Amino acid sequence: GKTALITGGAKRIGAACALALAGAGADIVLHYHRSFREAEKTAEKIRGLEVNAWPLKADLESEEETRGLFENALDMTGGLDILVNSASIFPDNTVDTFTWEDLEQNLRVNTWAPLLLSRLFAAQERFSDLEDPPEAAKLGNIVNFLDTRITDNDRNHAAYALSKRNLFTLTRMLSVACAPGIKVNAIAPG
Fold first, then answer.
1. How far apart are the two ends of the chain, measured CA to CA in Å?
2. Rounded Cα gap, residues 22 and 4, in angstroms
């Protein structure tokens, strides 16, 4: 009975997460950027589980499109219970080679977009009037996908690793800022 927005939900880990949540009965807003075909296939599988699926395109490097993604998701669903920030970019670069533009692009997609979406998610009216402590059924959930690379030195993806380390710190900050109505957690596959 919940509704989730999953960024990068068309393929790989995002699609697996979307299908798992759909299998548990959640309706899914499935974000994609360039993976239209994969998004349609994943949405079709989700609908086969007898829940709703809405594929939405947005470039998370653009603040305007990121805001538009959230607004369109709200228009389609009436409200979101779960936000999964799975989308990321993963370019090759090293400490010696990455440029400011490389770092900025990684930060925009891998850190800023999750922050912006989390702010918009937390600002929903459904989370403003909760009693303290809130009923578990009314809690919101934000899940940020990190990477085990943040615990080691990944020489070949320096800008990516920096942006994901920022997302780790941001997750901790959001877990305090969004309490008690929204639980914020991170997963670091690898």
1. 30
2. 9
